Amino acid sequence: MTSDTTATTEIIDTEAGPARITWHPARRPRLVLAVSHGAGGGIEARDLKALAAALPAHGVSVALVEQPWRVAGKKLAPAPKTLDTGWRGVWPALTAPGPPVISGGRSAGARVACRTAGELGAHAVLALSFPLHPPGRPEKSRADELLGAGVPTLVVQGGNDPFGRPREFPEAPEGAYDLIEVPYGDHGFAVPKRAETTQEQALGLITDGVLEWTRSLG
After folding, report:
1. Which Gene3D superfamilies match (predicted)?
2. In this structure, is residue 54 part of a structural domain?
3. Would you say residue 1 lies in a domain?
4. Cα Rg, the chain, nearest whole Å
5. Residue 60 β-bridge partners
6. Strand partners, 193
7. Backbone phi, then psi, for 187, in 5-degree steps?
8. How does residue 5 score in pLDDT terms, banded at 50, 70 and 90?
9. 1 pLDDT exceeds 60?
10. Do 68 and 86 touch, CB atoms closer than 8 A?
11. For residue 3, is it within any domain?
């Protein structure tokens, strides 16, 4: 399925510079899913595109947020504090339509969503490819950010993600977060051609899983 209506964009001034929101609205939205990109890519990531195409037909408007550094054409992401500032700056525009907002992102964007969820009043958090630790450095865990979100949280993680495979995620109190594993997926949810799961099936697992989770949020 595709978006109910045509996508629109808007530029939002933040203390970190202008950010950009690309809206994929539902006709009768019950939720807004706001998702930002990682430190090495933009909103053209395969999982973000798949969510924007699939969810609006089911009453979830999708807002793809480009951080100011991407809008400015820079190749390297700034410090986490600056990313948080950019996210705070777009939040009023994300809540303006009215429905509750799920704060989300992939990789570095997932960290931002977790860190700011409580102060911004996010309805929930969607963490795509949460970077639990730098590759090969499991002792540098960022689990405290994930566990500190304080709202219903869904992690969607590739089975072969070098930034943290599903089995590496900590056990947490019941209800702290749920986790969906994308078999064979890497940090960008790409699956090798030899895998039993096709790329299309992997993306379907993501969109179906996120949609089912949003229904549990009301």
Report:
1. alpha/beta hydrolase (3.40.50.1820)
2. yes
3. no
4. 16
5. 31
6. none
7. -65, -25
8. low
9. no
10. yes
11. no
Q: Are 52 and 64 in contact (CB under 8 A)?
A: yes
Query: Cα separation of 78 and 146, whole Å?
Result: 20
Residue 60 phi/psi, 5-degree rounding, is: -120, 110
Cα–Cα distance measured from residue 186 to residue 181, given in angstroms and rounded to the nearest whole number = 11
29/51 Cα distance (integer angstroms): 15
Structure tokens at 46: 């395969």
Residues near 98 by beta carbon (within 8 Å), at least 6 away in sequence: none
Q: Which domain holds residue 100?
A: 8-217
Average pLDDT, the chain: 94
Q: Helix (H, G, I), strand (E, B), or coil: what is residue 128? A: strand
Composition of the chain by helix, strand, coil, percent to 5: 35, 25, 45
Is the model's pLDDT at 32 over the cut of 80? yes
Dist. CA 214–CA 64, nearest whole Å: 17
Instruction: Give the pLDDT of residue 133.
Output: 96
The answer to whether 184 and 177 are in contact (CB under 8 A) is no
Bridge partner list, 163: none
Q: From CA 117, how far away is CA 110, in angstroms rounded?
A: 10
Tell me: the pLDDT tens digits for 83-140?
999 999 999 999 999 999 999 999 999 999 999 999 999 999 999 999 999 999 998 9
Six token digits for residue 201? 């099936």
Angle at 146 between CA 210 and CA 186, to 5 degrees: 60
pLDDT value at 188 more than 80: yes
